[in-house]
């Protein structure tokens, strides 16, 4: 690859995170297609940073009084560690998915005609409902991860949910998914990911998640394996619902919609991963 033709992973890091990836010229559709195929790997990178922050926070803020051996992490420590981990993932990803989610909620709530809805979504100002939805989704993520930490599978929940969000985003870029606008990242990404690429990543993540759930050193079990696989499937299904709404309401996807797909899928996976054995 030349300086004017960045590799797929490097471009994916540049497009989907705030991690410095060197000077990358404006990509074309072929390059974006190659980059989107690396989205799950980028998600794993983001999750790894969040997992390290989660572990460091648990070690740093564990209280010898409240965090007794075998009793699980205290609510205070788990909540603080989860908040810092979620903040870290948002920081590393540049807040792109959160921004797309908030803008998409503003557009959805407007109930305006298609063109006006796209204008609202493109507006840099954040509406009241978009702001409320953004706060709510962060609260849900922190609370859900806190439950995971308390149940000894916080790292599992964080990694599977974040990567699931990126895999779900691939389904918003598969063939027969039009772009709502003629320009922008959404226009280049829409329809650019072969269906079998999305299928392959989904299948690989289902298997990896099930293995993680089964052999997690602290909370591994057959039930956890089924739950982890179900979390991936639920995340992809949630993203598919957002995609269908966008195609019907907007005529296709935008960069904001892809961000919303990723964020909603992440939350869906976190919630499923908190389901307890009856």
Automatic annotation (TrEMBL):
The keyword Transferase applies. It is a multi-pass membrane protein. The chain crosses the membrane at residues 37-57, 126-149, 155-173, 193-212, 224-242. It is found in: Cell membrane. Belongs to the CobS family. Coiled coil: none annotated. GO terms for cellular component: plasma membrane. It comes from Acidothermus cellulolyticus (strain ATCC 43068 / DSM 8971 / 11B). Pathway: Cofactor biosynthesis; adenosylcobalamin biosynthesis; adenosylcobalamin from cob(II)yrinate a,c-diamide: step 7/7. Keywords: Cell membrane, Cobalamin biosynthesis, Magnesium, Membrane, Transferase, Transmembrane, Transmembrane helix. Its cofactor is Mg(2+). Its EC number is 2.7.8.26. One of its GO terms (molecular function) is adenosylcobinamide-GDP ribazoletransferase activity. It comes from the Bacteria. It holds the Pfam family CobS. InterPro entries: CobS (IPR003805). HAMAP family: CobS. Joins adenosylcobinamide-GDP and alpha-ribazole to generate adenosylcobalamin (Ado-cobalamin). Also synthesizes adenosylcobalamin 5'-phosphate from adenosylcobinamide-GDP and alpha-ribazole 5'-phosphate. This is Adenosylcobinamide-GDP ribazoletransferase. It catalyses: alpha-ribazole + adenosylcob(III)inamide-GDP = adenosylcob(III)alamin + GMP + H(+); alpha-ribazole 5'-phosphate + adenosylcob(III)inamide-GDP = adenosylcob(III)alamin 5'-phosphate + GMP + H(+). One of its GO terms (biological process) is cobalamin biosynthetic process.
């Amino acid at each position: 690859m030349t300086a004017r033709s960045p590799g797929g992973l490097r471009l994916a890091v540049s497009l989907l995170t705030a991690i410095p990836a060197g000077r990358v010229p404006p990509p074309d559709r072929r390059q974006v297609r190659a980059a989107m195929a690396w989205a799950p790997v980028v998600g794993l990178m983001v999750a790894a940073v969040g997992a390290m922050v989660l572990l460091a926070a648990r070690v740093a803020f564990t209280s010898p009084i409240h965090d007794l051996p075998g009793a699980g992490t205290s609510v205070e420590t788990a909540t603080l560690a989860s908040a810092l981990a979620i903040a870290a993932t948002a920081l590393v990803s540049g807040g792109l998915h959160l921004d797309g989610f908030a803008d998409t909620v503003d557009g959805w709530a407007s109930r305006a005609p298609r063109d006006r809805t796209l204008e609202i979504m493109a507006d840099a100002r954040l509406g009241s409902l978009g702001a409320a939805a953004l706060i709510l989704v962060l609260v849900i993520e922190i609370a859900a991860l806190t439950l995971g930490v308390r149940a000894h599978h916080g790292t599992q929940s964080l990694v599977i949910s974040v990567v699931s969000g990126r895999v779900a985003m691939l389904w918003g870029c598969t063939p027969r998914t039009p772009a709502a606008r003629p320009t922008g990242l959404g226009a280049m990404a829409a329809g650019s990911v072969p269906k079998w690429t999305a299928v392959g990543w989904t299948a690989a993540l289902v298997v990896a998640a099930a293995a993680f759930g089964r052999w997690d050193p602290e909370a591994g079990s057959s039930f956890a394996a089924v739950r982890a696989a179900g979390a991936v499937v639920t995340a992809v299904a949630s993203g598919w619902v957002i995609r269908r709404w966008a195609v019907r309401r907007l005529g296709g996807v935008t960069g904001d919609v892809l961000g919303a797909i990723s964020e909603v899928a992440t939350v869906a996976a976190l919630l499923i991963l908190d389901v307890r054995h009856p």
